[in-house]
């Protein structure tokens, strides 16, 4: 039987957070409902951040309230602080994520705190989520390059990944935020991170600005990672990473994984339908 690799769908959050057009909640709900039918185990649908920082995510609670929940799907949300966590809990998120950075510049630009302060802010969020029985993911952004500080040392990534693991994050997602990493640099970064965190607790989160994300996934597969974040239709970017393009497209990751002999549990026809829907949401902007 083919080995399973999870594609963690982040399109409704990472994909849509940068769209200039204010996308109505009903459109987001329709996209999530289609993705639920595609067979994902987890879909990141919401972000409980300041609406002044990311206006597109302001309707997150309404999205969680409006979706048709499939019983085997976990609907996840970003929660940068206790306020965000309380709102996510009230809205019924099944899993939450804190999001840090391996570089100071991005950390300050994205969440208005340096790395050390951000880790202090995350600790009570992770503890509260675990007390509620929720799984917690920890993101590390800028795992090879930072838009403000330039190249990032692998040891800096390993340090933040280890700190998030120690705090209680069950899974660490490694973000190539700018989408300019090469397989060689991803491999070197993983060398350092794998000293701290085993591969079954890591995810690859690769944006695709330079068109190398699928190669970066392959090199990560060779290092034992089996979870990859992707956005249907290749939507997205980060409002605090100028010039960064979308996440690698879920349908492209699915096709590459199948070609490599892995199973994803996804229905390619429904995935194509969702990709079409996602692209239309962007075209209208
Ligand atoms: P701050 O200004 O330092 O926070 O922002 P504050 O505590 O001083 O609050 C400022 C205002 O925000 C206040 O409102 C708070 O009430 C409000 P005011 O009094 O001015 O009217 N506020 C909130 N409102 C709603 N929900 C909340 C919340 N917290 C405070 N949870 C903060 C700090 C973290 C809030 C801010 O910097 C922020 O929201 N940043 C989010 C940035 C973001 O969402 N970036 C995109 C996601 S990360 C990403 O895309 C990377 C990733 O994909 C991985 C990768 O690709 O690398 C994950
Ligand atoms: Mg991202």
SSE string: EHHEHEHEHHEEEHEHEHEHH
- Summing up helix and strand content along with how strands pair, one would put the structural category as alpha/beta
Query: Strand order across the biggest sheet?
Result: 1-10-9-8-5-4-3-2
| DSSP strand tally | 10
Put simply, the count of helices is 11
Quick one: CATH superfamily?
Aldolase class I
| Beta-strand fraction estimate | 15-25%
Report on the architecture of this protein.
Keywords: Lyase, Metal-binding. One of its GO terms (molecular function) is hydroxymethylglutaryl-CoA lyase activity. Belongs to the HMG-CoA lyase family. Residues 5-272 form the Pyruvate carboxyltransferase domain. By secondary structure, the protein is of the alpha/beta class. It has a single domain, classed as TIM Barrel, CATH 3.20.20. 43% of the residues lie in helices and 17% in strands. The protein is built from 11 helices and 10 strands. It has helices at 11-15, 25-38, 60-66, 82-91, 104-111, 115-131, 154-167, 183-193, 213-222, 250-259, 268-283, and strands at residues 6-9, 42-47, 74-78, 95-101, 135-141, 145-146, 150-151, 171-176, 202-206, 227-230. Strands 1-10-9-8-5-4-3-2 form an 8-stranded parallel beta sheet. The chain has a two-stranded antiparallel sheet with strand order 6-7. Helix 9 links the parallel strand 9 (202-206) and strand 10. The longest helix is centred in the middle third of the chain and has 17 residues, at 115-131. It is globular and about 40 Å long. The N and C termini lie far apart (43 Å). 52% of the residues are buried. The model has no long low-confidence stretch (mean pLDDT 96). It binds 3-hydroxy-3-methylglutaryl-coenzyme A (HMG) and magnesium ion (MG). Residues 14, 175, 177, 205, 207, 238, 247 line the site of magnesium ion.
